């Protein structure tokens, strides 16, 4: 049996919720229905279908996942409209005032319009892009963040190397001064003995 946490899209917290529901393996996740998964906190109808499909492909039962995945989006179609309902008035206000990055940019890409039309096209476009194209954007964000961390680490390393080099130079100079002082002291002793 494969642990439920190995299924793509299931993290530690969600795995804990699934285990509380009695779903502790990828096989039991693949055998469960979207309605059962929708009762788990953090899982909607669309995500339930994706998790079941992922679990089925992972466990080797990939063929039955296709009809169920096709059957769920009509049920999931009202869910985005319910979510879009409360956000639509905000999108209208943002669209009339110049738009936010999501609604205004999507409205301009769709062909423009003002107020109500741009808000509607903006919410539709953002709903579509959130389901299909969000993976690539997240990966580029992660790559950019990692590149930023690497650059910061390089800069910190170079700065530390410069600091160490300066300290070494100062220590060598101090050591040379001590050697000179010691040799002068030795010469002074020899002169006093004569």
UniProtKB/TrEMBL annotation:
GO biological process: DNA repair
InterPro entries (UniProt xref): DNA_repair_Rad51/TF_NusA_a-hlx, Hlx-hairpin-Hlx_DNA-bd_motif
UniProt superkingdom: Bacteria
SUPFAM superfamilies reported in the protein's UniProt record: Rad51 N-terminal domain-like
A Pfam family recorded for this sequence: HHH_5
Keyword Acetylation: no
GO molecular function ontology, one term from the record: DNA binding
Helix-hairpin-helix DNA-binding motif class domain ranges (all copies): 2-21, 35-54
Chain residue ranges for the region called Disordered: 19-42, 54-142
Low complexity: bias regions: 64-89, 116-129
Transferase in keyword set: no
Keywords of this entry: Coiled coil
Annotated coiled-coil segments of the chain: 154-191
Name listed for the protein in its UniProt record: Helix-hairpin-helix domain-containing protein
Organism field: Histidinibacterium aquaticum
